[in-house]
Amino acid sequence: MKHLSSNNLIGIWCSIQLPILADNSIDFNSLKEEMDMLTNTSIQGIYSNGTAAEFYNQTESEFDGINEMMADICHKKRFPFQIGASHMSPIISRERIRRTKALNPKAFQITLPEWLPLNSDEQLSFLAEVIEEADPIPVVLYSPGHSKTVLTPSDFKRISDRFPQLIGIKVGAGGLEWYAEMRKMNGGLAVFVPGHRLATGIKEGVAKGSYSNVACINPNAAQKWFEIIIDNIDEGIRIENQILHFFEEGIVPLARAGYSDAALDKLLWALSGRSTTSPRLRWPYIGVRDHVVEDTRKIAQRILPDFFQV
Predict the structure, then answer these.
(1) Average pLDDT over residues 75-100
(2) Total structural domains within the chain
(3) What is the CATH number for 176?
């Protein structure tokens, strides 16, 4: 399978979710069902071990089993996939790349280490090690806003100039000033913004796609929206405003109530009812309850009816 580059890393990619049983173990049967379903959609590809896949709360044998299953399914179907090798520990992140490199993903996703913030020299040291370990497979950096080390547009240019093997970044995005700075960056990275802000990101001349929370609701609908954005930006923005309306009414109150990003992504996944994966999170984290799923589904069906018809 040919690896990705900053030129062809585009579009909608959807995270697998981590199905957790009542005894706190991983439901690998539901996980296979998820992967089979996602690899029959129109999206660009799937990826493992993002936030919704709870990469921070797995044993290493579980990590290996998840990615071996994904690679087997995707290679058989010739469906693109990326492996999330992130971990709070830089040593474990590097070892995850080393162990799964033979699975030949189209790219690896990583985050910077957590617990302590990294200065600029430490950032470069970490990236140099993991990029060398991944070679010749390219790397995508996930830089969430809640990270201990928050990177700026100038930081992205600094690291992209140093590491051509770093082909993309997943960011939280910002306001007009942030987009202006990102346009100046000119670092050659494929920039991926949050799914519910994709039309704005493309309109601002910055985004090439999304590792999409919106795709959790309906992958095919998210892909169709991406194509609409490319063909008709005004219509794409109109749909984005609908999505933002749903988020403001159905998701933001839950975030304010203390639910984590992982809990909310799993909620979005559960809205369609297409999978046996429940919104349960692995201990000690708490997912939304079934009645919350039902209430949020009603809001989504009212505001985003097209996402339940595609």
Answers:
(1) 97
(2) 1
(3) 3.20.20.70
DSSP for residue 235: H
Calpha distance 52→269 (Å, rounded): 10
The parent domain of residue 168 ranges over 11-232
Residue among 223, 10, 221 at smallest CA distance from 106: 10
Sign of CA dihedral 112, 117, 123, 125: negative
Q: Which residues pair with 192 in a beta bridge?
A: 170, 209
| Buried/exposed code over 105-130 (b: 16+ C-beta within 10 A; e: otherwise) | bbbbbbbbbbeeebeeeebeebbeeb
SS3 label, residue 287: coil
Q: Is the pLDDT of residue 25 over 90?
A: yes
Residue 175 in any domain: the answer is: yes
Can you tell me the distance from the alpha carbon of 191 to that of 201, in angstroms, rounded to the nearest whole number?
9
Domain for residue 6, yes or no?
A: no
Q: Which residues on adjacent β-strands are paired with residue 81?
A: 46
Query: Coil, strand, or helix at residue 305?
Result: helix
Q: Cα 276 to chain center, whole Å?
A: 21
pTM of this prediction exceeds 0.85 = yes
**Three-class DSSP category at 91:** helix
User: Domain for residue 119, yes or no?
Assistant: yes
Q: Rounded CA gap, 231 and 210, in Å?
A: 17
For residue 1, what pLDDT is reported?
A: 58
**Does residue 42 fall inside a structural domain?**
yes
Of the CA atoms within 13 Å of residue 232, those in its CB half-sphere come to 8
Task: Give me 185's structure tokens.
Answer: 């960056």
Q: With 80 as the cut, is the pLDDT of residue 243 above it?
A: yes
